Amino acid sequence: MAVRRVAKRVGVGLLGRLRRQVNRLEKLQLEEYLLYITDTRRYFVRNFLAGLARGLGGAVGFTILGAVVVVILSRITVENIPVIGGFLAEIVAVVQQNLNLSR
């Protein structure tokens, strides 16, 4: 009789832990994730669209950053700051020289 009570308590404890573990797995939405992974078409389309969004974002961001740099450099040359202006003039001369050599 005592053995049954102990076994029943252990069984109830194990059952409670098992239920808690099942609840945790349900919170992870593991089933939906596995369905998503196994549906290759949906997986491909989603990753393709994510790649397009990253590429477009990078292009737009680089364009904005480049425009800001150009504005800053043009203002520096207008201000005629001696050190930086001379440096920029040398860079422009080298670029023009390379362009003439490539023709």
Written overview of the protein:
By secondary structure, this protein is mainly α. The protein is 93% helix and 0% strand. The protein has 4 helices and no strands. It has helices spanning 2-27, 30-38, 40-79, 82-102. The termini are far apart.
How is the secondary structure organized here?
Layout (H helix, E strand, L loop, with lengths): L1 H26 L2 H9 L1 H40 L2 H21 L1
Key traits:
103 residues; mainly alpha; 4 helices; 93% helix; elongated
Report the strand count: 0
- Gross geometry: elongated
| Classification by helices and strands | mainly alpha
In terms of per-residue confidence, which ranges show pLDDT below 50 for 5 or more consecutive residues? none
Please trace the helix and strand order, writing H or E for each element: HHHH
- The gyration radius over C-alpha positions equals 33 Å
Task: Give the proportion of residues in helices.
Answer: over 70%
Distance, first to last CA: 101 Å
What is the percentage of strand-forming residues?
Answer: under 5%
Overview in brief:
The protein is mainly alpha-helical. It contains four helices and no strands.
